[in-house]
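Fill in residues.
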């Protein structure tokens, strides 16, 4: 596990995933109803999306190549969009017998939006090594690349046959 591989996007996704997961236990609706008690299957979907968001941090830190974390970040971004839509739906459409919203649903919305934002940053952040500091695909220091000799251009002209 190499924490040097982690960038701001992965940290934001993991923190937002933890907020989303924790918000499922907070009161979402008046009367102290949490997501676990007020929702049917949606709470499990949100918990899986939050777990995938936290897993992105671990997978990025343990993988030697960036392909797997970037692919997972794309999937987590889609899951985050689904979470945002689900939470917005639960904000607009209250469950039966519930009269108002509590602070937990707003924390869930913030967590879902953070997952999307962090995943998009993680996907986009493919910056090269800082100037004067060369790294390999794992983020570890590496020697600078060798200078390439230019290849002369091909001669264009008629050939005799």
């Amino acid at each position: 596990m190499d924490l040097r591989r982690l960038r701001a996007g992965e940290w934001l996704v993991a923190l937002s995933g933890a907020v989303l997961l924790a918000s499922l236990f907070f009161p979402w609706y008046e009367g102290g109803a949490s997501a676990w008690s007020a929702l049917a299957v949606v709470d499990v979907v949100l918990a899986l999306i939050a777990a995938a968001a936290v897993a992105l941090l671990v997978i990025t830190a343990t993988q030697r190549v960036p392909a797997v974390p970037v692919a997972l970040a794309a999937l987590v971004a889609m899951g985050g969009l689904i979470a945002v839509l689900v939470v917005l739906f639960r904000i607009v459409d209250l469950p039966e017998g519930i009269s108002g919203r509590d602070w937990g649903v707003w924390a869930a919305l913030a967590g879902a939006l953070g997952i999307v934002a962090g995943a998009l940053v993680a996907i986009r952040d493919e910056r090269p090594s800082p100037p004067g500091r060369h790294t390999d695909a794992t983020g570890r220091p590496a020697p600078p690349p060798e200078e390439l000799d230019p290849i002369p251009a091909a001669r264009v002209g008629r050939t005799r046959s």
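The radius of gyration is 23 Å.
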